[in-house]
UniProtKB/TrEMBL annotation:
GO MF annotation list: nucleic acid binding
Coiled coil regions, renumbered to chain: none
Organism domain of life: Eukaryota
Signal peptide residues on this chain, from the entry's feature table: none
Designated name of the protein: Transposase
InterPro entries, alphabetized: RNaseH_sf
Length: 141
């Protein structure tokens, strides 16, 4: 199994991450949203299948997501087979910032910005996402 992880790691080296599409979701909590106490919501981030095809019209990309039950279900796996290249669950590197930049950078950055700005609505969260410096994301990768 370890050899499988090393193969994925090697494939991400030397700039090959540029064709690597990753997605993830995270829970966010805001206090006193519109005066209604704690507001809990899930945010999904990354490139959609259509975005990936727009960025890589020749289909030269590899898709990765985490092991959430909906991601590893037979229905999801069968949907992806034949439509795109994806990293199977057996090849995922657990707890590796090389392969999960959303978990190891993006969500933490966004939550820190929400706390720092004392954001009170979803529009503020959208601004934080939009204003996230691309250079920070590139450095993470």
């Amino acid at each position: 199994m370890e050899e499988t992880f090393l193969g994925l790691y090697r494939s991400l080296n030397n700039g090959k991450w540029k064709n690597y599409i990753t997605t993830d979701e995270a829970w966010f909590y805001m206090n006193n949203v519109n005066g209604n106490g704690v507001f809990r919501f899930m945010v999904w981030g990354g490139a959609s299948f259509n975005d990936a095809l727009r960025l890589y019209p020749d289909g030269d990309f590899v898709f990765h997501h985490d092991s959430a039950p909906s991601h590893i279900s037979k229905i999801t796996t069968e949907f992806m087979k034949g439509k795109l290249k994806f990293i199977s669950q057996e090849k995922w590197m657990p707890k590796s910032p090389d392969a999960a930049p959303m978990d190891y950078f993006v969500w933490g950055y966004m939550k820190q910005q929400l706390w720092r700005t004392k954001a009170k609505d979803v529009a503020a969260l959208k601004r934080i996402w939009k204003d996230m410096p691309q250079e920070l994301v590139n450095k993470t990768l």
